[in-house]
Amino acid sequence: MSNTATDQPCREIFSMLAYRWDIIAALALVEGREPNATIGVADATRWLPLIVINQAHAATVDLNKPVLVVAVHDPKKPDDPFAGYLTIDGWHRIYRAAQEDVATLPAHLLTTEEEKQIRLSGGDIR
Questions:
Q1: What gap in Å lies between CA 115 and CA 97, rounded to an integer?
Q2: Has this prediction a pTM greater than 0.90?
């Protein structure tokens, strides 16, 4: 995605509650890497009611392109029942995979340090 007037990448941001991540920066971090994880599509779909899906766009996405995932937890609360992983890019792929009964998708699981680099707001960024 780019701005045709400047040929510069547009900023793409994923927001969930008070958290925001810079997706263009995340994609730059993982460029050229092999996926290091997979996600279970059935588990990921529990979040779909919170996501706006363009069904026409979803029909065109490449299910081989890895989704971007970050760990969501507070290191001060190791037994937090809400800890887990959150997809920050790839929701249209998840939607399409669910429609086509695809069980898993490739993923880039960002490290804690990488997640902090791309997080724009929410939580303790430092």
A1: 25
A2: no
Place of tokens 């996405």: 61
**pLDDT per residue rounded down to tens, the chain (126 residues):** 444 455 555 778 887 777 888 999 999 999 999 999 999 999 999 989 999 999 999 999 999 999 999 987 766 777 766 568 889 999 999 999 999 999 999 999 999 899 999 999 887 654
Torsion of the alpha carbons at 57, 66, 42 and 109, rounded to the nearest 10: -130
- Do 36 and 71 form a contact (C-beta atoms < 8 A)? no
Each domain of the chain, given as residue ranges in start order, spans 2-121
| Residue 6 β-bridge partners | none
List of E strands, 64-124: 67-72, 84-89, 104-109, 119-121
